Amino acid sequence: MLRKAFVSITLCAVLLMSPFVGLKVNALSADSISAPSAVLMESSTGKVLFEKNPLEQRPCASVEAVDSGKLSLDDEITASEHAAGMGGSDIWLEKGETMSADDMIKATVVVSANDAAVALAEHISGSEDAFVEKMNSRAKELGMNDTVFKNCNGLDEEGHITSAYDVALMSRELTKHEKIFDYTSIWLDNLRGGKTQIVNTNKLLKTYNGITGLKTGTTNDAGCCMSATATRGDVSLISVVLGCKTGKERFADAAALLDYGFANVSVKELTLPEDMPKSIEVNGGMTDSVKLECKVSSKIVVDKGNGAKITTEIDLPDKIDAPVEKNRKIGTLTYLVNSKKVQSFDICAGDSVQKTSFGALLEYVFASLISL
Which of 69, 73, 140, 335 is deepest in the core (most CB within 10 A)? Predict the structure, then answer.
């Protein structure tokens, strides 16, 4: 049984921009991508590697998902009249029909089943409207400034809009839940005990090396849309294209963006340098030094082809004066790629150090005597 704040639901609905530092990659022109709006993002860092009208607000078909609610995959979900009445892509749910949450999610992710998406939303939040309210709240939390959800399935509706960049943000958040790939990687499967066959609408699953998902979507207003995810080695990419004229163009654009990323970038994990001091001298304190801490947990994107050299700079005083509070910033550790600063971290005091005083000395002596 899985209990997790995870359900794939709109797919433009139920699923920062930092610069591409120090990279000199082979050019990919906007004209070479037919989609009117597109973004290529490196997943682990959120770095945008390519953009074409990334913040342009557009209608969006079901191409991604949102985290919401607690759900067990074994939950039995009954389709309401409202859910069964959805148009567009569906699995022909009938009013009162019951299906497991696992199968409902599978239908939503694999074949963009709008009826299954609504059934899930109603099960989680009581109504589609309540679920959409949660979706919009979550969108704000993620910094999706160009998105307004009006439904949970991505069908055309006045005011239901997003942008390529926002879709990339949502897709990145969704891929943090690795369970989603159990669904997005399905090519062929069955529902209703084998009576209903489903085939994934993401044709890149059959043709693209390293593809892991994520979702396609098509409506009259939105055109052919897609958020494609792929991983090769340490590099994971998110390719978003909105508004393509045909499905063929959609897959070609998504693949071209992924090709561009894999050909030009690599991802490096930052680690503490060997010459990082373990402690620093303290003047006038109850101890003559204090240990140092620097929490480095990050990755950076670098050019794959020019032998990127990662170096560090440590900015620390020779000594500090007491008193010292734990977690007080003492200095800075900076990482550079080919001499360009890309990221910095605070170096902090690992403990507190009292200033030397008669009272502090007396307290220290007393504590020492008790410990004998």
Answer: 335
